[in-house]
Amino acid sequence: MSKTVIREGSLEAPTRHPLDWKSESFWDEKNLFNELERIYDICHGCRRCVSLCNAFPTLFDLVDESDTMEVDGVAKKDYWQVVDHCYLCDLCYLVKCPYVPPHEWNLDFPHTMLRAKAIKFKKQGASTRDKILSATDTVGKLAGIPIVTGIVNAANKSRPLRKLMEKTLGVHADAVVPTYYSKTLRKRVKNNGLAAGVAEATKRTNGRVALFATCYGNHNAPELGEDLLAVFAHNGIPVTLVDKEQCCGMPKLELGDLDAVEKAMQVNIPELARMVDAGWDIIAPVPSCVLMFKQELPLMFPDDPEVQKVKAAIYDPFEYLMLRHKDGKFKTDFATSLGKVSYHVACHQRVQKIGLKTRDILKLIPGTEIDAIERCSGHDGTYAVKQEFHKISMKIARPVVNRVKQAKADHYSSDCPMAGEQIANGLGDGSYPEHPLSLLRKAYGI
Questions:
Q1: What domain count does the chain have?
Q2: C-beta contacts of 266-271 below 8 A and 24+ residues apart
Q3: What is the pLDDT of residues 94-146, one digit of tens each?
Q4: How much is the CA Rg of the chain, to the nearest whole Å?
């Protein structure tokens, strides 16, 4: 008699199935809970992901404190506690879980959490706070009105007003909230004359870049885009701004508002695809935004050729520069060393599966030492600012903060500007993170 053998784990590269969110079964809550129970049971028996975020400790505590000490002893209503702590960093899928596809157990923890968030959003909607936090375009435009900018930034620095905001809105008083600028990146940089220069193509790059500024890069960190433009210009890479853009959709995805994600896609993808057709490569300076176009939208819309076209043409800035370097098109005429850099590797950059390209570029600078920290900062864009999750987010960040303290480096940095701010909040010494693009610009002396 033949006996079925189930492998304990998989040595094969993980693959991702499309998100079947248009099907009726996706929205079937009973079916969802059956899948949650199946996955929770596998996770309970494995527990490799316990150190990644608070979703797994929450699950394991629920199991261990139940009468049976198994998943069947956990009340179904408590399943949502696990869902609420998942902020879709995707690291469990990519670096920890031995049961992801093509393993026969077919475990996709993040996308099951996303499905649960989507069903919850469809049934209950979102709180006022969550609507505001995920409405990055609207809030950025409103807070960017000159007189409003000053009021918003002053309020965010006022302890009494922050305590009031915590009580009324649920935004933790100790969380770092972004600064807003009335002079956005798009106002600082005009397209006329911006794309000057002659493009030099390589095997993988066209040598001319369309910049998707991102909400954060436009409204909250315009200097990030300016540093990118300076570095790319120094390397002879013509850059133009994408004419029209909306939020990439990541904040709405994390909320479970998939219809809003589709609406943003319908604005962004035609514009980006048009740029690709015209011979431009696409760059975005925030890892989560790049990942949205590289992974999440292609999985949500697997049959849309325009989505797939953009997926193949969008790059992380340092991924792009390293591709140019491989063909001798990256300048190494550095004017100064950076000394020691404590470098946090952003989760959504790791999930792109491009390797540590930022570290590799910075290591080219003579006299520069890079201490790479591959651990989550716990920020997630909105998780760390929410009243009920902020302290937990800072606990998740503690190992990263401790590494930065121990390094005693000349600079600390992260490709994710929000992760950098989270580290600064944990350090609490008044120091500020410097984005890798800013460091690269400093090394060039431009």
A1: 2
A2: 268/212, 268/293, 269/297, 269/304, 269/306, 269/307, 269/310, 270/306, 271/242, 271/243, 271/244, 271/245
A3: 888 999 999 999 999 999 999 999 999 999 999 998 998 998 888 888 888 88
A4: 22
Would the pLDDT of 377 be above 70?
yes
Three-state DSSP class for 231? helix
Three-class SS state of 424 = helix
CA distance 126 to 363: 44
Whole-number Cα distances in Å, 400 to 244, 404, 409, 423: 36, 6, 13, 7
The whole-number pLDDT of residue 1 equals 44
- 419, containing H or E segment: helix 417-427
Among residues 98, 124, 150, which one ends one of the domains?
124
What are φ and ψ of residue 21, in 5° steps? -80, -5
Q: What CATH number does the domain containing 378 carry?
A: 3.40.50.1860
Please provide the average confidence, as pLDDT, over all residues in the chain: 93
Tokens representing 295?
């992974």
DSSP strand pairing (209-211 vs 239-241): parallel
| Residues 44-66, mean pLDDT to the nearest whole number | 95
Residue 317 in tokens: 């800035």
Domain boundary among 101, 124, 147: 124
Cis peptide before 102 (omega within 30 of 0): yes
pTM for this prediction = 0.93
Q: How big is the CA angle at 404 (ends 403 and 405), to the nearest 5 degrees?
A: 90
Domain carrying residue 81: 25-124
- Please name the helix (run of DSSP H) or strand (run of DSSP E) that holds residue 314, with its range, or none: strand 314-315
Query: Which pair of structure tokens corresponds to residue 92?
Result: 């469990």
Cβ within 8 Å of residue 303, ≥6 positions away: none
In whole angstroms, how far apart are CA 66 and each of 71, 85, 427?
8, 19, 37
Residues 248-265 have a mean pLDDT of 95
The token pair that represents 103 in the structure block? 């393993």
High-pLDDT (> 70) share of the chain, %: 96
